[in-house]
């Protein structure tokens, strides 16, 4: 969308509406809205729009392609260095799309959290890169709870042993799980996938996998984030609803 068309006032209005919907979902499910973080997914948006988001108080941004992540991080660092007003908080970049192993270097350099680790080979590649940089990366294990063949994510049955392998890696911190609901216009169609992820999360918590670092459920996007909040999401990944 044209950055000029997406005004700061529009973004503030949309953020307020999303916040109200999150609060209502929390009220229905007995949760505290302070426990839910919003990641603004900016994969199709121009730099000018991301500047509006920063000015509106957003601090967490999600990208789905490594090359776009690198470009936007570089451009926003220039903007932040010239900015006179203090930032609303530390800016954190989230890799929310499928990760190709040959793009791990750029992701390791730019991202604060990767939501889409779904195989041992990818975890090992990312771990090697982080150890070489003497850093630790927060990651989420992506699980295919909808059983759709076109979706990435490890199988539900493979998640626990994969998580056990990841927590032994010094360069990675397993912070939780991620999933995507099925491709369907009805938000309720996502509920079973979200319930299954929460059940898996609870099982891993019981086994103390990841210890105190294991605390996030990343699930819910523009069409189904209210259902995700009702089922325990701590991170929602919202794009279109911010810019419409």
Net shape = globular
Q: By CATH's scheme, which homologous superfamily applies?
A: Alanine racemase
Q: Mind summarizing the main beta sheet?
A: 8 strands, parallel
Low-confidence stretches: none
Helix proportion: 40-55%
Order of helices and strands: HEHEHEHEHEHEHEHEH
The multimeric state of the shown protein is: single chain
Rounded to an integer in angstroms, the radius of gyration calculated over CA atoms is 17 Å
Q: Figure out the total of helices.
A: 9
Task: Please report the first level of CATH classification, the CATH class.
Answer: Alpha Beta
Structural class label: alpha/beta
What count of domains describes the coordinates? 1
- Indicate the proportion of strand residues: 15-25%
Strand order of the largest sheet: 7-6-5-4-3-2-1-8
Total strands? 8
Mean pLDDT: 93
Distance between the termini: 9 Å
Remind me, CATH topology? TIM Barrel
CATH architecture: Alpha-Beta Barrel
Explain this structure.
The chain has 244 residues and is of the alpha/beta class. The protein has one domain: TIM Barrel, CATH 3.20.20.10. It is 43% helix and 16% strand. It contains nine helices and eight strands. It has helices spanning 8-29, 47-55, 66-82, 104-110, 120-132, 156-166, 191-206, 225-230, 240-243; strands at 37-41, 60-63, 92-95, 113-117, 137-142, 172-178, 216-218, 235-238. It has an eight-stranded parallel sheet. Helix 3 packs parallel to helix 4. The protein is globular. The termini are close together.
């Amino acid at each position: 969308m044209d950055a000029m068309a997406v005004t700061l006032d529009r973004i503030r209005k949309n953020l307020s509406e999303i916040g109200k919907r999150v609060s209502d979902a929390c009220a229905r499910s007995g949760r505290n809205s302070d426990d839910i973080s919003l990641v603004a997914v900016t994969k199709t948006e121009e730099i000018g729009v991301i500047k509006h988001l920063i000015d509106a108080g957003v601090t967490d941004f999600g990208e789905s392609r490594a090359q776009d992540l690198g470009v936007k991080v570089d451009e926003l660092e220039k903007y932040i260095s010239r900015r006179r007003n203090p930032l609303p908080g530390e800016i954190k970049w989230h890799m929310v799309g499928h990760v190709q192993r040959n793009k791990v270097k750029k992701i390791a350099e730019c991202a604060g959290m990767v939501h889409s680790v779904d195989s041992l080979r990818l975890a090992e590649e990312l771990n090697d890169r982080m150890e070489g940089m003497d850093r630790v990366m927060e990651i989420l294990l992506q699980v295919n709870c909808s059983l759709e063949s076109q979706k990435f994510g490890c199988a539900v049955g493979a998640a626990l042993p994969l998580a056990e392998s990841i927590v032994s890696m010094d360069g990675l911190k397993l912070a939780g799980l991620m999933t995507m609901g099925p491709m369907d216009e009805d938000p309720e169609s996502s509920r079973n996938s979200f319930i299954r992820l929460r059940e898996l999360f609870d099982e891993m918590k019981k086994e103390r996998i990841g210890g105190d670092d294991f605390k996030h459920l990343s699930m819910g996007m523009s069409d189904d984030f209210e259902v995700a909040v009702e089922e325990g999401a701590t991170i929602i990944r919202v794009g279109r609803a911010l810019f419409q």
